[in-house]
Amino acid sequence: MNRGWVNCGAILGPNQRPTFLGQHSMRVDWLFFTVVQRTCIFLSLLTLVAHAQKPDDTGVEANPGRPTVSTPATLVPVGYLQFETGVLGATHSPEFSSRFGLNGVIKLSVARRLELLAAAEPAVHYRAGGRKANGTGEVFLGMQAVLRRGEGARPTVAASYFRRVYDGGVPELDLGAPRNSFLLLASADARGFHYDVNAIFNELVESGVRRAQFGQTLSISHPVSRRLTISGELWHFTQPFLHSQAVGNLWALTYKARNNLVFDAGFNRGLTGTSTQWEVFVGFTYLVPRKLWR
């Protein structure tokens, strides 16, 4: 939940435990980063093992939705599970001074035009109001449907809906955490470039008050080599409870290690006073090369 300018260090959510300066706080921080570090190592080893194995379906390709804010209108191949995992560090935002989180998205297309999604942020460490704390972020469930299939310069058009099913009560990025979210998406290729365009309509709730939030994103990518791609993005979201606007510029590199495994890294720079000023991220997309059904 976006709490605007509320001092998050002084107000604890129902699922948060207070932290205090000194030895206890240092021990909590050390344990948290140990857990995150070991989780990242485990995921990396799992990915390397999967990378070393011969896929069951060598022709199937991942369809990464990360690391941009924009979501592609196209879906993952039918019957395959895709995992998008990463870590994101951010500084100087209305709700916190620093924030570090582990995030993940799971996608499964059950038909040529329908995809099911689940998104979560299981571990978050943040500093707000001069205090440090650990917690969990939100969990979202949703679906995406292709309205018109495109090819080449003819765009694929889709719509998606997400519902927040769990709120961990941790400080959010400048985009907030909508209760309900509806997106219109378009993706296409033109003159060697690929673009994703999103129009986003969110419902934000704060202290029982509902407000509409509107967002627009444009992501453009271009291959640098056979495996390396660079992406640039501009995005904008209204901030109804702050009576302001969040605007950012994102740049990222993606490396296609194999058809079903793509690594990414990049940064985002906030362009307004109420935007998260800096974000740095790294992660990967892995499509399990075994179809769940035939």
Tally of structural domains: 1
Distance between the termini: 41 Å
Low-confidence parts: 1-29
CATH topology: Porin
CATH homologous superfamily caption: monomeric porin ompg
Describe, in plain words, how this protein is organized in 3D.
- With about 290 residues, the protein is mainly β.
- The protein has one domain: monomeric porin ompg (Porin, Beta Barrel).
- Helix content is about 10%, strand content about 55%.
- The protein is built from one helix and 13 strands.
- The protein has a twelve-stranded antiparallel beta barrel with strand order 1-2-3-5-6-7-8-9-10-11-12-13.
- A hairpin with a 7-residue loop joins strand 5 and strand 6.
- The longest helix has 30 residues.
- The radius of gyration is 19 Å and the shape is globular.
- About 35% of the residues are buried.
- The N terminus is likely disordered.
List keywords for this structure.
294 residues; 10% helix; mainly beta; twelve-stranded antiparallel β-barrel; globular; Porin
